[in-house]
Amino acid sequence: MYPRKFDYTAPQTIADAVAVLAADEGAKVMAGGMSLLPLMKMRLLSPATIVDIGRIDGLDRIEDRGDHIAIGALVRHAETAASDLVRVHAPALAQAASLTGDVQVRNKGTTCGSLAHADIAADQTAAVIALGATMVANGPGGTREIAAADFFVDTLTSALAPDEILTEVRIPKGGSGSAYDKLGRRGGRSDYAVAGAAAWVDKPNGTITAARVAVTGIGTKPMLVDAVGAALVGTDGSPEAIAAAAEHATEGVTLLEDLYGSEEYKAHLAKVYAARALTAALGD
Amino acid sequence: MSTTSVLGGVVRRKEDPALIRGEGLYVDDIKLPGELAAAFVRSPFAHARIMSIDASAATAMDGVHAVYTADDVRHLGPVLAQVAVGTLRPPLADGAVHHIGEAVAMVVADDRYIAQDAVDAIFVEYEPLPAVVDLKAAAADEVQAHEGVSNVLLAWSGQDWWPGVTDELPDAKPVIEEAKARDDTVTVSLEMVNQRLIPTAIEPRAVLANWHAGYGSFELWSSTQIPHALAGAIAKIFGLPSNKVRVVAPEVGGGFGLKLNIYPDEILCCFASQRLGKPVRWTETRREAPASSIQGRGWVGTATIVGTRDGEILGYELDAICDMGAYSQNFTVAIPLLGLFVAPGQYNIPTAYTLTCVVTNTPTTDAYRGAGRPEAAYYLERVVDRYAREIGMDPAEVRKKNFWQPDQFPATTAVGLTMDSGNYAANLDALLEKADYEGMKARRDAARADGRLVGIGLSTYVEVCGFGPSALAGLGFSWSEYGQPAAFNGSGVVRVNPDGSCTVIIGTGPSGQGHETTWAQIVSDQLGIELDQIEVLHGDTAESPFGVGTFGSRSLAVDGTATFEASARVKDKAAAIAAHLLEAAPEDIRFADGGAHVAGSPDKTVSWPEIATSAYQPHTLPEGMEGGLESTAVFSPGNATWPFGSHLALVEVDPDTGNVEILEYWAMDDCGNVVNPMIVDGQIHGGIAQGIGQAMFEAAIYDDDGNLLSSSLMDYPIPTAADLPSFRLDRTTTPTDVNPLGVKGIGEAGTIGSAQTIVNAVVDALEPLGVEHVDMPLRPRNVWQAINGARG
Amino acid sequence: MTVNGTTYDRDVEPRTLLVHFLREELGLTGTHVGCDTSYCGACTVIVDGRSVKSCTYLAVAADGADVRTVEGVATDGELHPVQEGFWERHGLQCGFCTPGMIMSSVALLEQNPDPGEGEIRHAIEGNLCRCTGYHNIVRAVEYAAAKMRGEEPPAPDWEVPS
Fold first, then answer.
1. Is the confidence at residue B725, as pLDDT, over 50?
2. Residue B164 has what pLDDT?
3. Which domains does chain B have, with CATH numbers?
């Protein structure tokens, strides 16, 4: 309820922010704060320094960069969800953003912040994986790019180094459709995902030439399930083909039971939502 | 007693203008100069010995004024409980802890941030002991929640719990056994869990205590439903007369029973204020609330019906183990008793029951909206449904076949209590017609034919409320343990002020029920004083008549009646004054439109300010009449009241995920006469939402070691707007003759009627798969497991 | 920061939450605290035009921001249509969630003047109410939406005395 004491700094540039992180082991980046502050209030996390990147110019944009779109570190969930660029080129991410938290959370929390937090039951994590996104990290040594599929390492652990900031996520254009769907903790699509799946497909001439499905909520981390996509390639995307491919939805996943689902149930849901996401992705 | 009708009219609430502007003052909004803030060190173990407490670092911190442990407060004695059966809670854990989150030490500091810093700096060494959480294990007494003490506190059973009443009841057991043995009967049983719930008022509890050394008195602000009981308890604990403790319950942000208790923090803030000479505040955090306030429900049990194949129920048995938690507080062991009161529901059937109260290493359970009655209604109405299916009869028909009939009231039930009035079949028929039950069944069947899992759930219920009769004082319906040995009477003061405005002061402790509006309506209806000229005060023990508080759907039927009677007396006196002023006979005086007039002579009028002026200038009064214009009334009802109703839901289950969607929810409640239909409907809405919360979402989940796995709202999901449909309500009106208003009570009805309505609907939806029961909460995982299990 | 049109300049500890700044420092106690995990929404205020939970917001991070609380919703003593809707349609009981609920509803109607029932329910999903079952809150927002569009609000559920 009441965080421990900490120092606060709100640098004006990414370089300054990175410099603070590099100099102070106990420093932690805050964008919207929707993941960080609750942990600090419960004193489960007590950074020595908060580096508020909220005053750095230029991070609050969604840009069309020709072959990809880029979402800056300060873009709120609500902005991701409402963006025409995202809705056209990355509908799975727009849908996942619209199903993240509630209105107030979406107004304050950021897409990149949610990704960097790497919660196992978050929504947009699965979407960026399925969309084949690239994460751009800024650190003392400059920028580096990390494939979304490699970004989520473990529960609440991303590939970011402690002195790196996720400044941007880049989503390639292309493909014929993408979608995200989930079962929420209170049923329906509300709240964190009990299980969710994002799908991206490319079906240029009646035959699927590429497909990616990522799952969230069911295991130790959100992840790409290669076997689903592989099973779809070469098919026509019929309900039967989708059902057969979705059977692979837990391959390689380390399932994790929680209050909302046993491993058996989560494995089942992964297949259900893989199929639903694929069906929706192929629907448009 | 005659029954009059209070004309039910919708008026906007008097409470609202302040609340919608953010000007309502709750305890945490009230600031005193120099106040300090308290925080508690809480146990991380469910059962452990406390080996040592090291508070030296905390005590040395800047801004920390005191750290208290059991050694400092042992002399205060345990936290008083009205039904003092079992181990009572020490204000701070003394030698051992018995549930997760039990308070071990108290910090008082300059502000709450510093207080929490100091809590972090206190080191407690524990030696863990085996914990008991599972109710069957607790009943078997293999592991004891308190070392060396049996877990089994008592069993409410059979003929012996209310000497003089129940000992004259016929023993239902042999009748039921005989029926079971017949070869033309069927017997159905369901073992079911009615899970523990965390009540979760949106306002966390808050306390602000201020000791005035010079006056030798306490002022205590608390978000409580029972200000007078609290004043009595504090007075008793600190050795003061109750008039030296002023308790104020200002705006209270929801109660639902969790604020119907004497809590250690209330005692400890008083203690600390006395010691430190400064006001001391504590505001509960949501994270500690599961342990710092009571929880509700927590039964595991079996309900059994034996009946004929054509729907005649020959006997009902309820055998349950009820979770009391680690310590007994206010009513703890009496909550199952309240359930027992309505065990046979609307049915005239032999009923046998055993409700075993056991102690576990979990926080205390006590009254949560409905308090025993939702549990009882759940077991009964689930197994009635099961029976209906077994014999292939419509669930509505089975119910009707076994109802008490209107001409049988007052009706003495199988548990020995007498119900005031009821018209059950008419109520159910009204619901079925309004909701187009036949059409709904056709739609369900059509959906089923398409392979969809659609179901209809029905439940009826009887509530017992409006406590209550003075004769029940010996059963615990009194605040005697808090030094206030009054029965659960109602009280009200009606005062016409010298300017003709009216002040009504009541002894209730509302937390959103709209008492200011409803009571003003009652008085306005009597006196003809405009609503905006009536001010209703409550919640301050220094100004109000002794009051029992607000719980158990009792306020209107008991305290409302007292106010009605007080206003009638004021009216009589005012009529005599008006008659004197108008030179007419008192019996010809009529009140309306802000004054009095002579019947048949509308021009002969005198206004309320004129009547009041005369009342306060006694030389103008009739010879011998005392000055002033006010009355205090105390009302003691001869019986509780017995509201009832029927609820109906249509749901659809997603066979792939187990997700439940409520398509329609209908309710037909009967709480007797209604003063303000808008407020009554609001109570039903909220009650239904809490019942649906239990049915679909909520569960206080403890692991075998007594760790709470659902400790925040992230893991204790209460319903949001997105989870619920709009509700379709209507009512029947069967007045009671227990009070002259003919009113019964509506605060808990929605909760008592709803949980099993949803479960019955979901089980009906799964009927094609052969599922007979799914335990609450009906989270998708549980429903899917049932589906998956049925499919093999 | 600017709160309800008044500019305040204060030094605060970095760990002070916006809700505590509003309540303790400015005495604006209409904004409530109901949980610690950003779930209940009792602390909802509008910052720079967007509804947010002030319990999950550092006061220092709101430096320079424009904050609106329930105390600033009425203009010149006239109730906002949302406040009027809550009163007219019994959208509150204990009143504790009400300020946050009002702020979420105000924010909704500023963005969507004609929301359907489902849109209203999703818009207030981040505001928990334990008293009303949300039924009359939805009616209150429908009332306000109609009023703000210059239309006659839908009839109430209960009979209007003639």
1. yes
2. 74
3. 27-129+202-254+259-292 (3.90.1170.50), 368-467+639-791 (3.30.365.10), 498-635 (3.30.365.10)
Say how many residues make up chain A.
284
Report which secondary-structure segment, H or E, holds C102: helix C98-111
Residues in C touching B252 (Cβ below 8 Å)? 94
Pairwise CA distance, residues B124 & B461, whole Å: 49
- Convert the pLDDT of each residue in B83-124 to its tens digit: 999 999 999 999 999 999 999 999 999 999 999 999 999 999
Residues of A with CB under 8 A from a CB of C: 1-8, 10, 30, 33-34, 37-38, 41-42, 50, 52, 54, 76, 78, 101-105, 107-108, 190
- The verdict on B729 touching C (C-beta cutoff 8 Å) is yes
Residue B777, preceding peptide bond in cis (omega within 30° of 0): yes
Do the domain assignments include residue C10? yes
> Is the pLDDT score of A60 beyond 80?
yes
CA distance C144 to B601: 45
How many structural domains comprise chain C?
2
- Per-residue pLDDT tens over the stretch C55-81: 999 999 999 999 999 999 999 889 999
Q: Is B516 part of the contact surface with chain A (CB cutoff 8 Å)?
A: no
Give the residue carrying structure tokens 């016929």: B170
Query: B259 versus B159: which is more confidently predicted?
Result: B259
Please state the ipTM of this predicted complex.
0.98
Helix (H, G, I), strand (E, B) or coil at A121: coil
The span from the CA of B639 to the CA of B174, in Å, is: 30
CATH classification of the domain holding C49: 3.10.20.30
- Is residue A259 scored above 50 in pLDDT? yes
Q: Which of C56, C60, C125 to mutate to test the interface with A (most CBs of A within 10 A)?
A: C56
pLDDT at B3 > cutoff 60: no
Q: Which chains touch C (3 or more CB pairs under 8 A)?
A: A, B
Say whether residue B781 is in contact with chain A using an 8 A CB cutoff.
Answer: yes
The second-level CATH assignment, the architecture, of A188-283 is 2-Layer Sandwich (3.30)
**Given this model, what pLDDT does residue C160 score?**
57
Radius of gyration of chain A (CA): 18
Percent of chain C surpassing pLDDT 70: 98
Written as six digits, the tokens of B403 are 């109802």
Rounded to whole angstroms, the Cα distance separating C12 from C32 reads 20
Q: How confident is the model at residue B406 (pLDDT cuts 50, 70, 90)?
A: very high
Average pLDDT over residues A187-198: 94
What SS3 class is residue B142?
coil
| CA B484, chain centre distance (Å) | 21
Handedness of CA B431, B433, B439, B441 (dihedral sign): positive
B346-358 pLDDT per residue, tens: 999 999 999 999 9
- Three-state SS for A176? coil
For residue C158, being part of any structural domain is answered with no
Closest-CA distance of chain A to residue C14, Å? 6
Q: What angle do CA B666, B671, B674 make, to 5 degrees?
A: 105
Going by DSSP bridges, is the β-strand pair B299-308/B185-194 parallel, antiparallel, or unpaired? antiparallel
Separation of alpha carbons B186 and B196, rounded Å: 32
Cβ atoms of residues A153 and A118 within 8 Å: yes
C60 with C111, same domain: the answer is no
CATH code of the domain made up of A62-172: 3.30.465.10
- Within chain A, all domains assigned CATH 3.30.390.50 are found at 188-283
Write out the CATH class of domain A7-53: alpha beta
Nearest neighbour of A1 by CB, restricted to B285, B661, B720: B285
CA distance A119 to chain C (A): 15
**DSSP element (H, E) containing B257:** none
Q: Give me the domain span that covers residue C130.
A: 81-148
Chain C contacts of A103, Cβ < 8 Å?
51, 104, 107-108, 122-126
